[in-house]
Amino acid sequence: METKDYLKDIKDIKQMMSQSSRFISLSGLSGVLAGIYCLIGAWLAYKTIYTEAAMGTSDQIVIAYDAVINLFSIAVSVILLSLVTCIALSYKKAIKSNETIWNPASKRLVINFAIPLLTGGFFIVFLLEKEMLNLIAPLMLIFYGLACVNASKYTLGDIRYLGITMIVLGLLSTWILNYGLLFWALGFGVCHILYGSIMYFKYDRN
């Protein structure tokens, strides 16, 4: 009995140390919903680019200014919906586990996630100003992937593999620039749903 109690104490200590260094209340379901939002956004963007406001040939599409505004609105809406969903579901999971959502681990997670993401955001704004639109989708995937990999040591390890997948898709997309929207939907949509489902069944179901 003493040996069993000793092993149980060690296990409890390891679990407490893991919880103090990693934010483990990240919701897998929020990833699934974010992927769905992204697929809807990709479909709306496709309609905007190829059916409502496209001019020129299939190899060089010129997008009207109004269409650019619509695309920006779609992107912002997807980001805000995904962010609100992630915070709400992670908060619900944290409460259920008797944890706080804003703690030293979650602060480190946010900081390490934000650094590559904001760097990529500033670079993408530069590309928009220079009208180098073909590179935006690949770089969004690459910088988002770097953000996930950088932040993964402060949360669930599955986020690292999501990030690596995003980086690979982004690099592949640079070779096929005309299919950037397809890769964007595959990365932010399908991969989020896939990894979110894996995380949900591994960590969220009790």
Written description of the protein model:
By secondary structure, the chain is an all-alpha fold. It has one domain. The chain contains seven helices and two strands. The protein has helices at about 1-20, 30-50, 65-95, 105-130, 135-150, 160-175, 180-205; strands at about 55, 60-65. Helix 5 runs antiparallel to helix 6 and helix 6 runs antiparallel to helix 7 (about 180-205). The longest helix has about 30 residues, at about 65-95. It is globular. The two termini are about 30 Å apart. Residues about 10-20 and about 55-60 have low confidence and may be disordered.
Mean pLDDT rating: 81
Low-pLDDT segments, ≥5 res: 9-20, 55-60
Alpha-beta classification: mainly alpha
Biggest sheet layout? 2 strands, antiparallel
Strand/helix succession: HHEEHHHHH
Number of helices: 7
Strand tally is 2
Q: First CA to last CA: what distance?
A: 28 Å
What general outline do the C-alpha atoms trace?
A: globular
Helix percentage range = over 70%
Give the tally of structural domains.
1
Main sheet: strand order: 1-2
- Alpha-carbon Rg, integer: 20 Å
Strand-residue proportion: under 5%
